[in-house]
Design brief:
By secondary structure, the chain is an alpha/beta fold. Helices cover about 30% and strands about 25% of the residues. It contains 13 helices and 21 strands. Bound molecules: flavin-adenine dinucleotide and adenosine monophosphate.
Length: about 475
């Protein structure tokens, strides 16, 4: 039986990064992955590369260009006549982007001498793992042994009984990345990150989009001021977001999906051509044999781990979406690095308090650290500094003046506690705030740092100055 220092189960951004870091540290590594791509071929990269972060951002970028040409180019003096969208070509570009990147992971595996075992892994006693092959029926079931196991089996879309996914009329996020034309009317259940991003894609391409959200407020985890601004902006763009609207059932007639929902005013029914169920994701332990192996799971099915991703079984770690914490690719990857370094005998630490979040609507929404509502409920004394992009020279030159940067700093020490952005390129701007917080920086540290002019980053500089009541441009 082949024995490895480390066997990783799952090759999403958690598993493949863990495997590469282990190999860099001189450990022998195998990574078991059972994903099959659109053509039925085994593929690395997990949800993120195949049906998550990357394809959704590819479609967001394409649809953003289309909307710019249709609505905004003229302001720049550009006449774009006869602008049309070939959805199939757009989807084909997305698939090409995905396949280049997933093949890139395969070549990184070869470079780092990581063995890719193609199939589903199931945990056996004594740190052995059984591999049931996929894609290639000629290969037999095999078993490998490991000194350490890293479980990185990720998550799958959550389902609700009132809207069963058939991947035709009623789809999940994966189905919504492959429509061959923009539906005339599109319903979305759930106004979370995925619902808002996919809703934006199809709205820009011409669909009338209605998003039904059971909660009374949009994006409860986001700073309230920023979430309220996002709500107004997205509604203005034409996304019909209905809050407090709980979907209670669906049906169909020949052509359409009938959605039944309830809100404060009573019961309603709407008909749409397609419906996306975007009600969150759940941890994936199917195939893994977690319970038989004796792994402790919590009541929602997440594998229980400590702060350093150790499970209740010695030598067995779990990382990424299958454990507690935000379901984000970079969180999964960083846990992968931490665990690899722990296995190699190094210290392993991760600062869970400053994981950046991004919602890739336009304008983008990004934040890290505490929200104002968090600080109020903790009873922490703080100061706020905010700066609107309407006062930024660079944003004005780009005609992208919507949005705000908001810094929250401790009232006594001035330490940065949270930074919240809605605005152009917020996904890139948030990195500065995360670095500052990682070094326990203060608002004054950002305020004293020279920012290039003219840049969008100057809005962060001004927001930091505003914490002390001394912004220059407002
Ligand atoms: P996954 O990426 O889910 O990978 C798990 C892998 O394990 C899969 O390849 C699966 O086939 C494999 N596996 C499972 N069980 C077994 C088994 N028994 N044997 C072998 N292999 C197995 N996050 C961001 O940070 N930014 C974004 O912009 C973003 N956009 C998203 C957009 C969409 C539409 C979706 C759905 C998600 C998005 N996410 C985003 C979330 C992100 O994709 C996940 O947080 C991330 O993929 C989690 O990584 P992971 O390695 O834990 O799991
Ligand atoms: P997220 O977990 O961030 O992806 O968001 C999923 C959203 O779907 C949450 O905000 C839920 O409130 C919402 N949701 C779940 N079930 C329903 C339902 N039956 N009707 C409307 N919204 C729902």
């Amino acid at each position: 039986m082949q024995k490895y220092d480390v066997v990783v189960i799952g090759a999403g951004p958690g598993g493949y990064v863990a495997a590469i870091r282990c190999a860099q540290l001189g450990l022998s590594v195998a990574c078991i992955e059972g994903w099959l791509d659109e053509k039925g071929k085994p593929a690395l990269g997990g949800t993120c590369l195949n049906v998550g972060c990357i394809p959704s951002k590819a479609l967001l970028d394409s649809s953003h260009h289309y909307e710019f040409l249709k609505n905004d180019a003229l302001e720049h003096g550009i006449t774009a006549s006869g602008v049309s969208i070939d959805v199939n070509r757009m989807i084909a570009r997305k698939s090409k982007v995905v396949s280049i990147l997933t093949q890139g992971i395969a070549s990184l595996f070869r470079k780092n001498k990581i063995e890719w075992l193609k199939g589903h892994g199931r945990l056996l006693p004594d740190k052995r793992v059984e591999i049931t092959p996929v894609g290639d029926e000629t290969t037999e079931i095999s078993v490998v042994e490991a000194e350490h196991i890293i479980i990185a089996t990720g998550s799958v879309p959550a389902t609700i009984p009132v809207a069963e996914v058939d991947q035709d009329r009623i789809v999940d996020s994966t189905g919504a990345l492959t429509f061959n034309q923009a539906p005339r009317t599109l319903g979305i259940i759930g106004a979370g990150v995925i619902g808002l991003e996919l809703g934006s894609v199809w709205r820009r391409l011409g669909s009338e989009v209605v998003i039904l959200e059971a909660l009374d407020e949009l994006l409860p985890a986001v700073d309230r001021q920023i979430a309220n601004e996002a709500f107004k902006t997205l509604q203005k763009q034409g996304l019909d977001i209905r809050l407090g609207a709980k979907v209670t059932g669906t049906g169909s007639n020949n052509q359409q999906v009938i959605i039944h929902y309830e809100d404060k005013e009573g019961k309603h029914q709407i008909n749409v051509d397609r419906l996306v169920v975007a009600v969150g994701r759940k941890p994936n332990t199917s195939f893994l044999g977690a319970k038989e192996f004796g792994l402790q799971l919590d009541e929602s099915g997440f594998i229980q781990v400590d702060d350093q991703c150790r499970t209740n079984k010695p030598g067995v770690f779990a990382i990424g979406d299958v454990v507690r914490g935000p379901m984000l690719a970079h969180k999964a990857s960083e846990e992968g690095v931490m665990v690899a370094e722990l296995i190699a005998g190094q210290g392993g630490h991760m600062n869970y308090g400053i994981i950046p979040w991004v919602i890739y609507t336009w304008p983008e929404i990004a934040w890290a650290g505490k929200t104002e509502q968090d600080l109020k409920s903790d009873g922490t004394a703080y100061r706020v500094g905010a700066f609107p992009f309407i006062a930024s020279g660079r944003a004005r030159a780009m005609s992208e003046t919507g949005g705000t940067v908001k810094c929250l700093a401790a009232a006594d020490s001035d330490r940065l506690l949270g930074v919240h952005i809605i605005g152009p390129n917020a996904s890139e701007l948030i990195a500065e705030a995360v670095i500052a917080m990682a070094f326990d920086g203060s608002a004054e540290d950002i305020a004293r740092t020279i920012h290039a002019h003219p840049t969008l980053a100057e809005a962060m500089h001004e927001a930091a100055l505003a914490v002390d009541g001394r912004p220059i441009h407002i």
